[in-house]
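Need tokens for this chain, all 396 residues.
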Amino acid sequence: MRQRIFEDGNGNLCGEYPHDPAVGFVRSKRGLRRRLVLADERQTLTDSDAMALALKRYASKEAEIRDRQFANDAKQRAEQQRLKNLSFADAAGQWMAMVEQTARPKTILVYRQTIRLYLEHVGDHPLREFGRSQNEVFAQALTRVISHRSGKPISIATQHMHLRHLGGFIRWAYDNELYSKVIRIKKPKVPVQEMEVFSMDQLTVLKRFLADNVDQALPGRDLVNAKNLYRAFMLATNCLLRVGAIAHLPLANIDIAAGVVKIRDVPELGWKNKGGKWPNKPINANLADFLADDLANRSPAERWFLDDGSGNTWYSDYSHVSRAMGKACRNAGLPDGVKPFHWGMRAALITWLLNNGETPQKVQQLADHSDIQTTMRYYNTREAQQRDAVDRLPVF
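Here are the structure tokens for all 396 residues:
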């Protein structure tokens, strides 16, 4: 390789080196430049001695650059070999470490379950070997997985969820250059289920039932349960909040003067709002009257909207809030099998707003949907069209 030694504008003797010694100099691309003999040092040397010193230092610096490049090349080869042999389990571990920084604890548990089921039924293998066959083996295995809760095979919707999570992991691996191709995960077709929601009359019945329970409850846990169910109902039907946001709402985040309920992550309880959002939900007049009366009669020790009376959350696992409301719905004579907060209240009111002329954009903001298509799923056009058609049938 030829040497390039030149004098810069300040009188220093400098050397130029290729970025990659194995390739050499590249036309139209300036190489690495290093000072070899400074101008002050040259003044103490003859021109020939200065050039000899520059040549000596050039060779030393050239060897240093070459050694560093070879070390980098070896490191890259080792990394490529590591990635080539990276196991599915190790890659999944990296993915979970990333997920745990942003996802809610409940979501993390489900993702871990997906990886655990995959490793149990497909086994560990180099990530690069993942393909359609492993996808199909996992999909088939999921049809035989038994739910611990029901003792029956998990539903198609749950199978679909695990395969969706697998697809998310593979996309992450591709984006992070751990996997070399994009693959569309094959999933079972989920039956389209008609959304069953409570009517406004049924919600009125439920509200009256919950209010009567408060009036009739005995002091102690019975009264705490009755009040918290009524509180949850009021927030769900006036702000369209999800049950997780209701169950983890600190009293300090209710600002009646400003007319908002602040939805924030609650690190103390390990809870994060869906989608990483921190919305402020407006308080309407009906909710403001309820909250003013409710807050005025709280114990000073209470900290949570759904409090056990002593400054602790009503339930440590907020899924129990849904179960308690589901039981109340059944006792009130409402249809069984309807998720009380998700479909029974939240979806019912989203549907009512859309069917009664509210703009989809406003409903989307109130419901905290990232995509307006999610909002429009609640507008049951199929039912509406059937209703129009059946009303036109002749009378015999």
